[in-house]
Specification:
By secondary structure, the protein is mainly alpha-helical. Helices cover 55% and strands 3% of the residues. The protein has two domains: 60 residues; 51 residues, no CATH class. Strands 1-2 form a two-stranded antiparallel ribbon. Strand 1 and strand 2 form a beta hairpin. The protein contains four helices and two strands, in the order H-H-E-E-H-H. The termini are far apart. It comes from Xanthomonas campestris pv. badrii. One of its GO terms (molecular function) is DNA binding. InterPro entries: H-NS_C_dom. This is H-NS histone family protein.
Amino acid sequence: MRQVPPASPSAAAKAQLLEELRKLEQEEAQLKYAQTLEAFDQIVEVLTQFGSRFNAKQKSQIASLAMTGKTKGPLSSTGEVVAKYWLPHSGETWSGRGRTPRAFKAWEGTSSYKEWKSKHPDKRFPLYPG
């Protein structure tokens, strides 16, 4: 039967350090909570004292901060827009947003467009098959 060696001094030191770290993290959480309560009291005091003097824009900004917790930044692009239309003869695609691409405008004047349009009177361009 094999005996397990006794815990080394470094293992005991590591356990002690972990316990100290846990206590420090708990203390940090308590301090942050106390700071949050103090900040809330200050905010309520300022709003009570000066709230009636804020203009509509300032009140709106305060309300939006209270609801989300952060200011609204510029809208970010979510990426590429999915193609809605395509030209079967060229493979050109278009999302349907913004100005009509030149290839689509050029195709509108052709006989193949008129033939396609007679079969699909309710559509502007062929839908992308995807």
